[in-house]
Amino acid sequence: MRRRQGEERTExxxxxxxxxxxxEWRRRAWASAGEGxxxxxxxxxxxTALLLALDELSKACLLDLSLTVAHLDHGLRGERSEEDARWxxxxxxxxGHGVVSKRASVGERAGAGRDNLEQAARRARYEFLxxxxxxxxxxxxxxxxxxxxxxxxVLLNLLRGSGAEGLGGIRAERRxxxxxxxxxxxxxxxxxxxxxxxxxxxxxxxxxxxDEMNDDERFARVRVRRRLVPLLETFNPRAAEALARTAxxxxxxxxxxxxxxxxxxEEATREAPEVVDDESAAVEDERxxxxxxxxxxxxxxxxxxxxxxxxxRRALRQWIARGRxxxxxxxxxxxxxxxxxxxxxxxGRVAELPGGARVERRRGxxxxxx
Amino acid sequence: MRRRQGEERTExxxxxxxxxxxxEWRRRAWASAGEGxxxxxxxxxxxTALLLALDELSKACLLDLSLTVAHLDHGLRGERSEEDARWxxxxxxxxGHGVVSKRASVGERAGAGRDNLEQAARRARYEFLxxxxxxxxxxxxxxxxxxxxxxxxVLLNLLRGSGAEGLGGIRAERRxxxxxxxxxxxxxxxxxxxxxxxxxxxxxxxxxxxDEMNDDERFARVRVRRRLVPLLETFNPRAAEALARTAxxxxxxxxxxxxxxxxxxEEATREAPEVVDDESAAVEDERxxxxxxxxxxxxxxxxxxxxxxxxxRRALRQWIARGRxxxxxxxxxxxxxxxxxxxxxxxGRVAELPGGARVERRRGxxxxxx
Lengths: 370, 370
Prior knowledge:
The structure is a homodimer. By secondary structure, chain A is of the alpha/beta class.
């Protein structure tokens, strides 16, 4: 009897691809004792390989996970979109896993709101995955970003002049949303090349779906993939790995600095200022602001002024995020404007933030006015 | 009477190029009260423009500097090398500045020692500039690295997978050598494009010297300049500026972390360990090592083990540098090997360093054995 390749593999030693995934899973000490996990599957090579490998490891009893496949039909590819959804559902069923799929009208959504198409797609995807995790009672969502995605992200951020936050690229583990308990895991991002995922799908006899948007050179990411990365590889055949290594080092630096900046901010906001003894209406006004209406308590100038620039700016960024709720549209220039308020001895100065908030310096304190 | 362009400019408002140089000089609060300064001039567009602009600002009394031109003939270009030297001497003389030039046999030097050609050239240049500064009683050497050099350096380091130290690129100010009081200043590195230096030389009517090594695509830097940067500029016309901005942000991060790591190291080495109560010869041996023979005092495991990875590694790197005298050939892998000694409770473990030194863990301390 001729056995199917997939079955053959689950009975013997796991494939090289699955073994690397397992090593990563264990190295990061991710849960594997019966946990529910949502696997985001578009039907492309990367996410198909991810699903097949998690399936292989589960069936070989090397990972004890309860897999739910989640597929969002972005509604951007017409009939092909529906075919992709059916294909993913069929694959999940064949492997014996539950599947959640949904059709979103990303195009309409982008047209109606303030997001562009890419942002609208991303937002729809995250909402869908959060909902899928909730429905499945899953503690984690697993996504198939590869080392190639990592290299591309680092390069795109570099082209924008990003600091460590952007250069750090894609994290292998983070919360799905800031306030969520659900983790977003990316077990392929540190090592898997696109050739690996395609090769593994081939070895498993699964013909993944092609996404022609991956060939559309109007997208900067596609041009980075097809033109820039190959040129970099003429300098160093392992350029993508080098970029990923840089990203990891820079990410560690940023994490350490964020932590230290949080401590600095804590120190700078420890004591609220005494009520200001001044009769002008401006100060009355400001006294109201000094009350902790926003999440940003007044900040002592002296504590921040003496800190290293990169700590000071991170602390200010965290403080602004507390005051505004987020950092949307806050650029380095805004942070630098607030930073300038720290210099010298003169109070009564103001820095404007996007969306109407502003920061005032008075009597040795910065006040956030939401 | 027809005046020469150079003279004309020194009488009026300084040129745009010189004004930007002046703004940078003032922003960085560099000395300008009669100080002696050595200007490193190869004869190429960048260093010629630097010399012409410093000369213009001096003669316009906007900077009060006593300029000495320094030219090292690397002896790599045969007759052209000698012509370059004569050309620089002639230009310096015409402008009325002293000149020091020297011929080095970089090729022979590289053949005899352990340096490759590029390293040997660099070493010869630094020695020559230090000597020129000493002879001229100058407190600073000024070099003509541009924003293009900065972008190229960042990219070359990125292609190697460097962390923040490499990505930080070229600093605008540092010591010429670790133990030297002489500063190395690079006033063009934050803003001047190669087109600016060429344009300014042209406007001053000075035909700079061409270096055909700048066209030799066997050098990775030349390929970065001629192929990679132009491709990046199809994504972002200001890609070089973006790279320089990233470099500056990352450099600030690295500086803050180095400072914090130094404090951590100070804390971890504050108390020398008590004499170890053990009779084995190995421990006797090690006791001798525990004495501060090298510059690296024993290091308390507990203090470092709890710190963030990026601080811990920097502290270890600083400690290793103290023990060995430098970090030549010390790679991330070596630092990670030492870092592993910090994990767990078990002593008696050893990590090897290049050149024969090693680090041992015993009784909660790391010992450096030179």
